[in-house]
Specification:
This protein has 339 residues and is an alpha+beta fold. The chain is 50% helix and 17% strand. It has two domains: 84 residues, Phosphorylase Kinase, domain 1 (2-Layer Sandwich); 216 residues, Aminoglycoside 3'-phosphotransferase, Chain: A, domain 2, CATH 3.90.1200.
Length: 339
């Protein structure tokens, strides 16, 4: 209880739940800023999950659950937000959610019916939000994950790495080698910018609402009287762009031999809703662009930390990103004769 008071949570809970008399008989820390709590509220016990967010991420999550998904009658796919309150120290915003349990997807031995339920929920969000008027609001409060995301991140990463060199930064030989590897990858991506951008425009489909961080760990399948209920959690990076951005992140978390079947689930789901997707070969190109853009984005903040603070963690992070670039393979299996 002392720890919760230190982070301002107990007071925030009382505020978020309308000034109710709240005590916390049970708690479990799930991650740095996320807790699962058993609350006693005016004598009644209930389970909640609370998360401390930056103001921007808190606003984005709240808009998803209370404005954007309700606009297309899909609010059931957002976790029920019970209350919101500022951290007592002014460092963030606490969100209080109904505790939906631990029904995240198993990516090693996946239950294909649960995977199908998640895929169909994601497909429904993508199709219903395609070219929706609220995308302007989603872009303003979230992130533009479309064609500009690739170019901006590649340019920014190259610009920062150009500065991250001696004498401005003291690098060991292996660290200089990592920097050179990243520069080679990013320079190649810059040369491909026009071709990749054209493919994204021509084959990527309409812009839509994206989760932005669609790992299976951010999906929950909850048993309900009318069948499984799917909730997508942690919309901190929600934005606007082509569906391939979400799909590549989701598919890559599964072993390669499961991905074609999952891709067919999505293709069938959007097909029933009127969408037609390009070939797997074309999708692989779009997925590759989405992943390369993500990797370029992952260069920026570690490199800045190295330049500004000499942060050793930044150098370690850049080495990891270089490994990601080197290891990237097609998301979907490549048939013989394709390359």
């Amino acid at each position: 209880m002392r720890r919760l008071a230190e982070v301002g949570l107990h007071g925030a809970l009382c505020t978020a739940l309308g000034g109710a008399n709240v005590s916390i008989p049970g708690q479990q820390r799930l991650s740095k800023h996320v807790y699962r709590l058993r609350l006693a509220i005016d004598g009644r016990v209930r389970g909640v999950v609370v998360k401390r967010l930056t103001p921007r991420a808190a606003e984005c999550n709240e808009l998803v659950g209370r404005r954007w998904l309700p606009a297309v009658r899909l609010e059931r796919h957002a976790p029920p937000l019970l209350g919101v309150a500022a951290d007592q120290r002014g460092r963030g915003i606490w969100h209080v959610y109904e505790d939906l349990g631990d029904g995240v997807l198993d990516t090693v031995n996946p239950d294909l019916e649960n995977v199908r339920a998640v895929v169909e929920a994601v497909a429904c969000i993508h199709v219903r939000f395609a070219d929706h008027p609220l995308l302007a609001d989603c872009r303003a409060h979230g992130t533009d994950l479309g064609v500009p995301f690739y170019g901006q991140n590649v340019h920014d990463a190259l610009r920062i790495l150009d500065v991250m060199r001696p004498p401005a930064v003291d690098l060991q030989p292996h660290q200089s080698a990592t920097r050179e590897r990243l520069l080679r990858h990013l320079t190649a991506l810059l040369l491909e910018l026009r071709v990749r951008s054209r493919a994204m425009v021509e084959l990527g489909g309409p812009e839509t609402l994206l989760h932005g961080d669609l790992w299976p760990t951010n999906t929950l399948v909850v048993e309900a009287p009318r069948g499984p209920r799917v909730c997508l959690i942690d919309w901190d990076r929600a934005g606007v762009g082509p569906a391939c951005y979400d799909l590549s992140a989701f598919l890559l978390r599964f072993p390669a031999h499961h991905r074609p079947a999952i891709m067919e689930m999505y293709r069938a789901a959007v097909g029933r809703l009127g969408w037609r997707l390009p070939s797997d070969e074309a999708l692989n190109d779009l997925f590759d662009t989405a992943e390369q853009a993500r990797y370029a984005s992952s260069v920026i903040w570690p490199a800045l930390a190295v330049i500004e603070d000499g942060a050793s963690w930044g150098l370690d992070a850049l080495a990891a990103v270089a490994e990601w670039f080197d290891a990237l393979q097609p998301v979907l299996p490549v048939q013989e004769g394709q390359a």
